[in-house]
Specification:
The complex is a heterodimer of chains A (about 400) and B (about 100).
Chain A (H helix, E strand, L loop, with lengths): L3 E9 L6 H9 L6 E2 L12 E2 L13 H4 L4 H16 L6 H6 L1 E5 L5 H13 L9 H5 L3 H10 L5 E4 L5 H15 L4 E8 L4 H10 L22 E9 H6 L6 E10 L9 H14 L9 E3 L6 H15 L7 E3 L2 H4 L6 H15 L1 E2 L22 E2 L4 E8 L3 E9 L1
Parallel strand pairs in A: 4-5, 4-6, 9-10, 9-13
Antiparallel strand pairs in A: 1-7, 1-8, 2-3, 6-7, 8-14, 11-12, 13-14
Chain B lengths: L2 H13 L19 H15 L12 E6 L2 E6 L3 H15 L3
Antiparallel strand pairs in B: 1-2
The chains are: A alpha/beta (about 400), B alpha+beta (about 100).
Chain lengths: ~400, ~100
């Protein structure tokens, strides 16, 4: 089996689209959550979101290409380009023929879908833009990544709601590890801040009105976000041969399904995914130093995830540093696992544990070390990143220090 | 503005080519218009004139245009063809 490493990281996020800006905001617990803008809000009660604010599509795309791209595909393409650049990768014709592109997202081009429905039902418009379908299809983002970079190997999208990004990266990791492909572009993308989608989330009554406070007793729910993170994964041999920078090694990937509730997380299912990732990576629980938690800031998740960590790690859970990036990044659904894996890889790279932002008060049901508000310099040899999706689908990755 | 000038403007914006290059005889295919481009041009014309052009991507460049006096086969290849179809459809919807 091949040793698989991360050599490139590209992000488009509410806290910036340059890797250094992204990392410093995470470390300083500077939240990207702010007033919702740019869409009509008169039908919404939600007033906040973690929006990508510094993104101007015309800086990245010719008008002709831009008209083909929903926002979720724009994010993916820009993140993929910066991952390739970050990896100092020249994709030769031969390499591109074999390379894979696997991207997670939860629901396709939701902006295009929302605009289309508004035109049809709201404005009674007799016709829609001819590119409506190519823009909104779930695989549009990964197809645009493939077209933009010329990637011609296995290419598809994975949809598992809030675990999509993690499932996609795990799939790509297994493909590189098994030797099926020498190199993969992988990650997650989401642009879900449309009126219709937010309205749906409001109906679930899980959205916070002020901010996201994972694991804090004063939590008030989750805050929707958007963005993308893409990675270059390749064999260590391949990376070394071309003198590429290495951020971290991907050690293990585990998955499970709860087969239980459509929304509530099941600690047993989550713990099985964690254990499966440790076994897949031949990592002992006591060797994990840091967990980037799913940590949505809902009572059900935070308590359930704490119980799951105790189940999976036993007594070793006491020694874990656990933090959630969602106080800073919000919850970007299909992109969340990818953005959080970027945080995890950078934690290993910099040997700094990013904190849980907006933490106010300890919750007796969440009794682990959540690294509240202040980053910590600490040796990190192995780290875990977890995603638990609606529908009870769990995906967990384990990384090791480069 | 004459219909043909609107047609030229819409084609020029869609294909990103100068409007001066477009004469009534200019063929869309010789401008490098691909199938999606043609569909986008059709959409632009429909929006501009509030008409419905019976264009099907897989049925070539012959259109069957229907008005009150019956149906007529029309060619849909050149700038002038497009303007002719648009004119016919505008007349068809006008009250008599």
């Amino acid at each position: 089996m091949n040793c698989v490493v991360i050599t490139g990281i590209g992000v488009v996020s509410p806290i910036g689209s340059a890797r250094d800006k992204f990392w410093s905001a995470l470390v300083e617990a500077r939240s990207g959550i702010g007033p919702l803008s740019g869409i009509p809000t008169e039908l919404l009660s939600t007033r906040i979101a973690a929006q990508v604010r510094d993104f101007d599509p015309s800086q990245h795309f010719e008008p002709k290409q831009e008209s083909l791209l929903d926002r979720f595909a724009q994010f993916a393409v820009v993140a993929a380009r910066s991952a390739v650049q970050d990896a100092q990768l020249e994709l030769s014709e031969d390499m591109a023929l074999d390379a894979a592109a696997i991207v997670g997202n939860s629901a396709g081009g939701q902006t295009s879908l929302d605009d289309g429905y508004y035109k049809v039902y709201g404005q009674r418009s007799p016709r829609l833009h001819p590119l409506t379908i190519p823009r909104l299809m779930s695989n549009a983002a990964v197809s645009q990544v493939s077209m933009d970079l010329g990637i011609k190997g296995p290419t598809y999208t994975i949809a598992s709601a809030c675990a999509s990004g993690t499932h996609a990266i795990g799939q790509a990791f297994h493909m590189v590890r098994s030797g099926q492909v020498p190199i993969a572009l992988t990650g997650g993308t989401e642009a879900c801040l449309s009126v219709g989608t937010i309205k749906g989330w409001e109906a679930l009554r899980v959205l916070s009105a002020d901010t996201c406070r994972p694991f804090s007793k004063t939590r008030t729910g989750l805050v929707l976000g958007e963005g993308a993170a893409m990675f270059v994964l390749e064999t260590r041999e391949h990376a070394m041969a071309r003198g590429a920078p290495i951020y971290a090694e991907v050690l293990g990937f585990g998955m499970s399904a709860d087969a239980n509730d459509i929304t509530a997380m099941d600690p047993d299912g989550a713990a099985r995914a964690m254990r499966s990732a440790l076994i897949d990576g031949r990592v002992n629980p006591e060797d994990v130093d840091y967990v980037n938690a799913h940590g949505t800031g809902t009572a059900l998740n935070d308590k359930g995830e704490t119980a799951a960590l105790r189940k999976a790690f036993g007594a070793n859970a006491e020694h874990l540093a656990v933090s959630s990036s969602k106080g800073v990044l919000g919850h970007s659904l299909g992109a969340a696992g990818a953005l959080e894996l970027a945080a995890t890889a950078l934690a290993l790279h910099h040997q700094i544990v990013p904190p849980t932002a907006n933490f106010e008060e300890a919750d007796p049901d969440c009794d682990l070390d959540y690294v509240p508000n202040t980053a910590r310099n600490a040796p990190i040899e192995k780290a875990m990143s977890s995603s638990f999706a609606f529908g009870g689908l769990n995906a967990v990755l384990v990384l090791g220090r480069a | 503005m004459a219909i043909i000038d609107d047609v030229r403007t819409i084609i020029s914006q869609s294909l990103k080519i100068p409007v001066e290059r477009l004469t009534p005889e200019t063929r869309l295919d010789e401008l490098g218009a691909e199938s999606l481009d043609v569909i986008e041009i059709v959409f632009g014309l429909e929006e501009k004139f509030d008409i419905s052009i019976p264009f099907k991507a897989n049925e070539g460049t012959r259109l069957t245009v229907t008005d009150k006096s019956g149906s007529e086969e029309m060619e849909f290849s050149t700038v002038g063809d497009l303007a002719g179809v648009v004119k016919k459809l505008i007349e068809a919807k006008a009250p008599r």
